[in-house]
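Sharing a chain and its predicted structure for anyone who wants a worked example. Both blocks are below, sequence first, C-alpha cells second.
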Amino acid sequence: MARYIGPKSRIARKFGEAILGPDKVLSKKNHPPGQHGNARKRKTSEYGTQLREKQKTKYTYGVLEKQFSNLFKKAQSSKGITGEVLVQLLECRLDNIVFRMGLAPTRASARQLVSHCHIVVDGKMVNIPSYTVKAGQMIGVRERSKSLEVIANNLAGFNHSKYPWMEWDQSSMSGKFLHIPARADIPENIKEQLIVELYSK
C-alpha cells in the first residue's frame, strides 16, 4: 500500500478527529464520508475497533503497514509495556521530531523537509524520515536552508516549551532531543492497548 495522498478531510471524517492537521471540513461535516456516512451507524465488532485504532495510528504518524509491523515487533522485543514503547518509537521518528519542533505544520510537510535534504542530525544531513532519533542528538536546519521562508513562517510564534523532552535554540535553528517522552506526555489520542490486542490474535 502506498502512502495516502488523498483529501485530509476524508481521513479526519472517517475517524472523527483532525489527525492530519487542522481541518475546517470536520467541524461542518462531523460524520463519516461517503453516500451513507450520515446514516445510522452499525455496531462495530471488537476486531473492527482494534483495526480502526491501528489504521488511525498509521495515518497519524504517516507510517506504512510494513513499517508499522516492524515497529510493533521491535516494541514487543523491548523492555517495558509493548503499547507504550510502540508509541514512543513512533515519536522518535525524525519526521515526527521535525514536526514537534515546529519546523513544519504537519508530519507530511515535515517528511518532505527531511526528504528534500533540509534537515541535519548532529551536523550531518539525513534524508530518511523514518530515521530513529536518539536521546541527546541535535536536530537542526541545514545551513543553506535557514533562509527558506516556509521554515521561518512555521517557526514564527511556535511554542517550543510545550514538549518538555525537547529544547530549541532559535539563533542556531536547532534543537536537542533530550529524552524519550513518557507515554503520559505524548498528546496523541491513541488507545495503544487495542493495537496490542489486535496483533496478539
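Comments welcome. The CA atoms of residues 16 and 30 lie 6 Å apart.
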